[in-house]
Amino acid sequence: MPKDYSLVGENAVRAVDEGLADGAWFMPPIDPDRLTALQRRSNGRALAELLLWLGAVVGLAILAVGLWPSLWSVPVLVLYAGLYGGAADARWHEMGHNTAFRTPWLNDAVYYLSSFMMWREPTLWRWSHDRHHTDTIVAGRDLEIAFKRPTTRSDLLKTFAGFGGFALLKRIWLHAGGGRDPEAAEFIPEQEWAKVRREAQLFVMILVLVCALCLAVRSALPLLLVGLPSVYGLWMGVFFGVTQHAGLQENVLDHRLNTRTIYMNPVFRFLYLNMNYHIEHHMFPTVPYYNLPALHEEIKHYLPTPLPNTLAAYRELLGAMGQQRVDESFELDRPVPAVPEAARRQISIAGNGPVVTVEGDRVHISTVGLDVGRARRVDVGDRSFALFRLGPQDYVLTDGFCTHGQAHLAEGAVIDCAVVECPKHNGRFDIRSGDPLRRPVNVPLAIHSVEVARDHRSVSFALAQR
Ligand code: FES
User: What mean pLDDT is predicted for residues 163-184?
Assistant: First the structure.
């Protein structure tokens, strides 16, 4: 009997019972200054690579129109569709994390464009991808497990052929008509459904217009250029995407065991936006794609040896999938370097971390070594805080953990000394007010007033306040 991956089935209950839902994942140590540098985003870099990709898409479209209806247009269309409905996957993904561009609306604009190119409903998939990062490859929790055990050869072929695109279209149709997919209903908050419906209706409307154009010009070409590439171009997205998790362990809380890092050539890395550094991405989703190779250098000593190339990755995953067809419980033996317990999750307290002293109900935190635009984790008993330095003598103390899930905000990205981005799902808070600024967070962050010492070398606050 096939394994149950439904978000509303027995494994969904089991995952919660076994502590796999919203669990605490392994994190390697990293120098906090280096992490801050790696989290910086660049409009110039992201724009240059976006224009290169879009230029290739438009150029191939023009060539295909020129060659249509000769047979020469076929290979051009296949390549065009690969860039449109396949390479869009990596753009959709990066923009969904809001990490490519420094300017948020640019990420959002490209996110909506690439969502349409992939037939992925923008709001639905944002929530789905949050869940994927919370419960990566946990059966019953993660809707983005692309290759379920046992994966047959025909499943693989159907995936490469883009059959999944039709399932997406069916769901769009359902939502456009006001229905709700039961699995999507499991993770999309009630207040988002009106938006989900509007987006689905917009997608349907565009596709209907393209079909009408086909009838008007008596040619399938418009649909081959807009709409159908989301099906017959999926092969390129699958070619890269299959390498991320397929054949690796399920139901573990360590990305080193369920995710692959592979060394790829520069062309693949451009098409795939460096997502071949996939373990690194899952561990630090606040790091933009162009900084993933540098992040890899920082933490590679704590990771399994990367696969040397794409071919080796395919050998590994196809071999594992073959074994799992015979024995569903087969797992690859994947040695991971030992990391001392004391070194784990030491992102913000490594190096020049704060020295905390408690006098009565007053807590004093040394600010020595805490630079402007940086944050420090402060643990006092069973409570945890984040101390932000926003100016030479300007400090803000907040609750440490994100109001959305299990992530410490001192490990997030501080943007323009005003906003903190959560390290787990890229939700954002205004540091001064604690107001949520970007989904998925919607509960404000508690702010605690602090006093700066006369010598400016520490701050203090009253622990009693909640
Ligand atoms: Fe989800 Fe912070 S844990 S945004």
Answer: 96
Could you tell me the CA-to-CA distances from 323 to 119, 246, 262, 332 in Å, in that order?
A: 33, 12, 21, 9
229 pocket-lining for ligand 1 (C-beta < 6 Å): no
pTM for the complete prediction? 0.91
**Chain segment 363-376, per-residue pLDDT in tens:** 999 998 899 999 99
DSSP E strand stretches across 278-410:
356-359, 362-366, 374-380, 383-391, 394-399
* Distance in Å, CA 11 to ligand 1 centroid: 24
Q: Look up residue 69 and give its two tokens.
A: 């209806």
Decide whether any atom of ligand 1 lies within 6 Å of the 23 Cβ. no
The domains located in the chain, with CATH, are 10-326 (no CATH), 356-462 (2.102.10.10)
Q: Give the type of residue at 382.
A: D
Q: Which of 190, 188, 233, 257 is nearest to 84 (CA)?
A: 233
> Does the CB atom of residue 420 touch ligand 1 within 6 A?
no
Q: What is the pLDDT of residue 346?
A: 45
- Mean pLDDT on 117-137: 96
pLDDT at 160: 93
Sheet of strand 394-399: strand arrangement = 374-380, 383-391, 394-399, 447-448
pLDDT at 348 over 50: no
Please check the confidence at residue 429 and state whether its pLDDT lies above 70: yes
Contacts of 262 (CB under 8 A, 6+ apart): 243, 276, 278, 306, 307, 308, 309, 310, 312, 313
